[in-house]
């Protein structure tokens, strides 16, 4: 096996540490850690406050701007400008002829690593974690050259959404550590996990659990407090509770103890790391058939309702609880392992190096 010096570009805004802000940060931590275990030299470029064990190179913060610049009518939101400055500085650094890397792996959602990729001497690989977004699509649409970055997608569903722009896109599914996400006893209150935001469907999940008469435990960060306070908090109580933003060990125990994991995306979920985590714990899925969920699940490990059908989701919760937990775990080992994900990226590094 060849080993590589990898520059891994992560989020400039969110730290890569537990409890993770979202699936992208968890994925980055897992990928960097596993690549290092396999002998690769990985430099992670990310946000401030990341896990010290990951030895993240923090991207340049936004410098103090003059009063004239800040008062100009074109001044955008500060977080937007800070991200732009961070990625612009990083890509200029990586474009230097003597940059000490064999491959640059862009694992961020920002447009600049894609737009500036052709200026980098080393091969660039971008993993597409979302459906097309305006800024990212505009960067992908730039004229392609021999040095244009290569692309991978986290699911077949996401790859098809980008296929018209990136015909040679490769699928490398996200993976979870099945030695850390281990089978639990099940039988307890269903669980919902993830970022508590509208597109993840926490409100629909609560209503379905109430209709099913099962209750629900929700775990995850609350980045949109207005949404949480207005839409989620009033639905809590009487068997429905938010248990906090948990680290992976505590979350694995919670998910493994649940009878069912409820996954109700209200957008075209590009992968759904919470699905793989639940499967690894032997916990069957009740969800909406939207985004990548039909691709990840079969009838041995999940029951899906039509998108937005809360009553159908309630029926799915009751039906999923009857599935064989050993078959659910087997699906994760065969289909969602971190080992398969890392091998997929190593194959792409080999092709880029050649």
From TrEMBL:
Q: Which residues form the Glycosyl transferase family domain?
A: 193-324
The name this protein goes by in its record:
Glycosyltransferase
The Glycosyltransferase subfamily 4-like N-terminal domain, residue ranges: 21-179
Keywords (A to Z) from UniProt: Glycosyltransferase, Transferase
What is the protein's species of origin?
Pseudonocardia abyssalis
Q: What is the lineage of its organism?
A: Bacteria, Bacillati, Actinomycetota, Actinomycetes, Pseudonocardiales
Q: Which InterPro entries match?
A: Glyco_trans_1, Glyco_trans_4-like_N, Glycosyltransferase_grp1
Report if keyword Repeat is assigned: no
């Amino acid at each position: 096996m060849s080993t590589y010096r990898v520059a891994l570009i992560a989020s400039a805004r969110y730290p890569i540490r537990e409890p993770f802000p979202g699936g992208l940060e968890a994925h980055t931590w897992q990928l960097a850690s596993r690549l290092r275990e396999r002998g690769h030299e990985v430099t992670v470029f990310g946000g401030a406050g990341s896990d010290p064990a990951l030895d993240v190179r923090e991207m340049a913060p936004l410098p103090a701007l003059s009063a004239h610049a800040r008062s100009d009518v074109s001044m955008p939101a500060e977080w937007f400008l800070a991200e732009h400055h961070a990625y612009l500085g990083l890509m200029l650094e990586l474009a230097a002829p003597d940059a000490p890397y064999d491959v640059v792996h862009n694992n961020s959602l920002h447009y600049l690593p894609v737009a500036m990729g052709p200026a980098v001497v080393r091969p660039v690989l971008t993993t597409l974690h979302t459906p097309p977004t305006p800024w990212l699509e505009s960067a992908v649409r730039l004229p392609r050259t021999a040095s244009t970055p290569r692309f991978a997608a986290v699911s077949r569903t996401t790859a098809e959404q980008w296929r018209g722009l990136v015909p040679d896109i490769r699928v490398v599914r996200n993976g979870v550590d099945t030695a850390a996400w281990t089978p639990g006893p099940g039988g307890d209150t269903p669980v919902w996990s993830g970022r508590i935001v509208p597109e993840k469907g926490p409100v629909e999940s609560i209503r379905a659990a109430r209709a099913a008469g099962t209750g629900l435990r929700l775990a995850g960060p609350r980045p949109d407090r207005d949404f949480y306070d207005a839409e989620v908090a009033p639905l809590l109580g009487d068997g429905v509770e938010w248990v906090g933003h948990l680290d992976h060990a505590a979350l694995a125990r919670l998910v493994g103890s649940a009878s069912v994991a409820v996954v109700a995306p209200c957008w075209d979920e590009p992968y759904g790391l919470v699905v793989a985590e639940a499967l690894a714990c032997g916990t069957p899925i009740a969800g909406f058939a939207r985004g990548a969920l039909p691709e990840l699940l079969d009838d041995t490990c999940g029951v899906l309702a039509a998108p937005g059908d809360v009553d159908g989701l309630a029926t799915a919760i009751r039906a999923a609880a009857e599935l064989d937990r050993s078959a659910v775990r087997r699906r994760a080992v065969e289909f969602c392992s971190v080992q398969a994900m890392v091998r997929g990226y190593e194959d792409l590094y080999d092709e880029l190096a050649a």
